[in-house]
Amino acid sequence: MTTDWDWTAFWADPWPQLGNFLVHKPLSVLIIVVVAVLLRLVATFIIKRVVNQIVNGVKKKQNVTDTAALGIAVSPLAAVRTVQRTRAIGSVLTNVVTAGIVIVAAILVVNTLNENATAAFSLITAALGAGLGFGAQNIVKDVLNGLFMVIEDQLGVGDVVDLGPATGVVEAVGIRVTQIRDVNGMLWYVRNGEILRVGNVSQGWSRVILDLAIPYEADVPLVQEALLDTAVHMQQEPKWKRLFLEKPEMWGIESISAEAVVLRLVAKTRPGSKEDVARELRLRLKRTLDEMDVRTPSLNAITLSGMEGAASIRGANPPKTAPLPTQATPTQKPATANPRRGAKPVVDAAGRDADGETGSADSADETGAPRDTASGTPASGASGAPTSPRIPRTPRAPRSPEKDD
């Protein structure tokens, strides 16, 4: 429907050309706009139908539509989750389709008004695409991951999930960011592009696993029967029956040690009721063990760490050996100058001579052996053995006067 426009002829005779422009160009632009609007409406309708089918299929696959049959009121979180999921998917797909239709319609309108502007517009579009491709990679990744998580129903409002960076209850699921509230009350904003795994404990079913330690000498079959009867009786009560999906099971002995035998009891419950069932079941099992006079042994062990733990390892300490006996060497007195022959030793008031020995001048005989002043016999040592006599020294011969000269 487009016609070539001659600007020279328009200025020469503007009125006929203006009439041709007003008749043909606006009509072509109007047709393009109407077709774009109709396409958007049809695409939005198809998107809503597809989203609803995907959501319903996932719910049936996860087996979460049987709550009404068991008499459980539908939680408001389920409605919020469904509405939020539907709005998120619908908004993203609608925005994508709308952006695509608007871009195509704009190109057609520009081409209708002036065909020469198409080349420049294509260059601008290519530049914008390259800029978005390099500068908005993280945003595109976040949006795509959020879109697939919402479509596949990997998580929703009220679910207890483990996303790796954060663990807690999902409060909001966005296209780019997911909000997680942990047990301490901290609100985490996790980008969808950083989520590599999703561990959801709120979908399908959960399992309560209880390990009970009993003494090694206890009657294991009797204790197993009593514990299982307690769990089955709790499951049959009207208050707790709706929270159990199956009857509790006693899996038997989980481990054996010198102090205790560990028994494992399990129960399959609804996801949101796992903790409540586990707490009540622990309390009842404890009462049963108390009635049977079965005391749970202590399985705690003290483990030293640090230098204390390293010192307790065999081989870390050196071997303990008895020290080798050593012989004491007798102390030798420093040699003193030999007194002149016939000179008496100098004795102080305490009776000590110059060498520090006590005794009188007459307590030693000519041979140098000390004598007892009372009996005149040679004195004995500390051990009672007699002291060996000294060997007299041979006097030197006097030097001749010739050698002195």
Automatic annotation (TrEMBL):
Bilayer-crossing regions: 27-51, 92-113, 119-140
GO cellular component: plasma membrane
Domain Mechanosensitive ion channel MscS C-terminal span(s) in chain numbering: 211-295
Membrane topology: Multi-pass membrane protein
Keywords: Cell membrane, Membrane, Transmembrane, Transmembrane helix
Cellular localization per UniProt: Cell membrane
Biased amino acid composition, Low complexity: 323-337, 373-388
Family: Belongs to the MscS (TC 1.A.23) family.
Protein name: Small conductance mechanosensitive channel
Organism: Schumannella luteola
Taxonomic lineage from the root: Bacteria, Bacillati, Actinomycetota, Actinomycetes, Micrococcales
